[in-house]
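S1.2 Input.
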Amino acid sequence: MPNAVTVTRKGAKKKVGAFDARYTVEFSALPGKKFGPWDYRETQRDLTVSALLEPTEARALVLDAFVEGSATREVSR
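S1.3 Output.
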């Protein structure tokens, strides 16, 4: 079964945008552990290193979390 990574926006959605929000990251392979909170760039960088996502995939995941409050992707690697 593939693992998943979940990014969650911390706090209310601000008008200033995704770059000023804070995010936490959870990995299904490490249940119960949250990493962060980080800003947009730190979160994107962590996803490219820790979850082995391509930069465009990481960016899309963080932006989805900003809009929806939380976003999950399967990670098969």
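S1.4 Remarks. The helical segments are 40-50, 55-68.
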